[in-house]
Design a protein that fits this description.
- The chain is α+β, with helices and mostly antiparallel strands.
- It folds into two domains: 166 residues, Ribosomal Protein S5, domain 2, CATH 3.30.230; 129 residues, GHMP kinase, C-terminal domain (Alpha-Beta Plaits, 2-Layer Sandwich).
- It is 34% helix and 28% strand.
- It has ten helices and eleven strands.
- The strands form two sheets. Strands 1, 2, 3, 4, 5, 6 and 11 form a seven-stranded mixed sheet that branches. Strands 8-9-7-10 form a four-stranded antiparallel sheet.
- Strand 8 and strand 9 form a beta hairpin.
- Helix 1 crosses helix 3.
- The termini are close together.
- Bound molecules: adenosine-5'-triphosphate (ATP) and L-homoserine.
- Adenosine-5'-triphosphate (ATP) binds next to helix 1, strand 4 and helix 2.
- GO terms for molecular function: kinase activity.
- Pfam families: GHMP_kinases_C, GHMP_kinases_N.
- Its EC number is 2.7.1.39.
- It is found in: Cytoplasm.
Length: 304
């Protein structure tokens, strides 16, 4: 029997929802787990060739964390890992890897953890609930997290919402993009942040796309991370003037997320984004990615 688990990519923050808002996309990390005599970890594809083939692999670490939380022993397994999500681009590759590992181990051990416990564990492993939560339950997630447990609401993404992602060729590790943030903020900036995050959550939940342009503005991380992402502030300011509903740094970057309305013409937006990237000498892919409303998926293959 092989257990196959597919966890979607995600975009965290959406501007002001730093560490608390995430949405998921139809790009996937897939893991396949089969019990055998000795542990064997098999990363597949060029993107994963530098990832560990021993117990330190984060997918396996997530499996161990799940078995520990469940108070059960993990049997030795063959673990295959494939990532359709580019690493360290702000598309939640690490969260998808953790969620896929955790859910595969949960399945292997006959589902000792329910969805809330999986959400809590994923948030602890990732350190925040935005990417991990969206990857686990799909759609849009708004969450609080106290370091142990999360309170969250999941809702389906508005049907007429579409996403265009700017995915640069260069990588940016989340730890570096977090290290550049200040420790304190002014009250003025906090009021700005709270009001925009609240409007963003209300816009997502109600499906009112008209507020996104204003609601996706942020003062907590994007102005600081702009030092690590050439052209970021120009992209964010100009995208809504060229047809985007709103734009934000995706997670810790360097990808940029632009929302647009279904059936709208994005050629002017693409031309604008390409022009800014060229001015800054950045090579990037522009990808129209379907949103994912389902979250992690498990399939069982008894014949294998
Ligand atoms: N499928 C995987 N297998 C093993 N390691 C992985 C896998 N996916 C991601 N990683 C590890 O996670 C790192 C990337 O995590 P990081 O948090 O920096 O970026 P991200 O998750 O892609 O983006 P963000 O968190 O900003 O959305 C990789 O460099 C690699 O070490
Ligand atoms: N909320 C996180 C997402 C990246 O993991 C950040 O922006 O640092």
């Amino acid at each position: 029997m092989t257990i196959e688990v597919r966890a979607p990519a995600s975009s965290a923050n959406l501007g002001p929802g730093f560490d608390c808002v995430g949405i998921s996309f139809a790009l996937y990390t897939t893991v396949r787990v089969k019990v055998q005599d000795a542990l064997e970890i098999v990363p597949i594809g060029p993107d994963l060739q530098d990832t560990p083939r021993d117990e330190s692999n984060i997918v396996y670490q997530a499996m161990l964390a799940l078995s520990e939380a469940a108070g059960q022993q993990l049997p030795p397994v063959r673990l295959e890992i494939e990532s359709g999500i580019p690493l360290a681009r702000g598309l939640g590759s690490s969260a998808a890897a953790l969620v896929a590992g955790m859910v595969a181990a949960n399945e292997l051990l006959d589902r000792p953890l329910d969805t809330q416990s999986l959400f809590d564990l994923a948030s602890r492993l990732e350190g925040h609930p935005d990417n991990a939560g969206a990857s686990l339950v799909g759609g849009a997630v708004v969450a609080t997290f106290d370091g142990q447990g999360a309170k969250y609401l999941q809702f389906q993404l508005p049907e007429n919402l579409r996403a265009l992602l700017v995915v640069p060729q260069y990588a940016l590790e989340t730890s570096k993009a977090r290290g550049i943030l200040p420790d304190t903020y002014s009250r003025t900036d906090m009021v700005f942040q709270l009001s925009h995050a609240a409007l963003l959550a209300a816009g997502l939940a109600s499906g009112n796309l008209a507020v996104f342009k204003e609601a996706m503005r942020d003062r907590l991380h994007q102005p600081y991370r702009a030092a690590l992402v050439p052209g970021l502030l120009e992209l964010l300011e100009g995208a809504p003037e060229h047809g985007a509903l709103g734009a934000a740094l995706s997670g810790a970057g360097p990808s940029v997320l632009c929302f647009y309305e279904a059936n709208s013409d994005v050629s002017a937006l693409k031309a604008f984004l390409t022009g800014v990237l060229e001015q800054h000498g950045v090579t990037a892919l522009l990808e129209e990615l379907p949103l994912d409303n389902a979250g992690v998926q498990v399939s069982l293959h008894p014949e294998n």
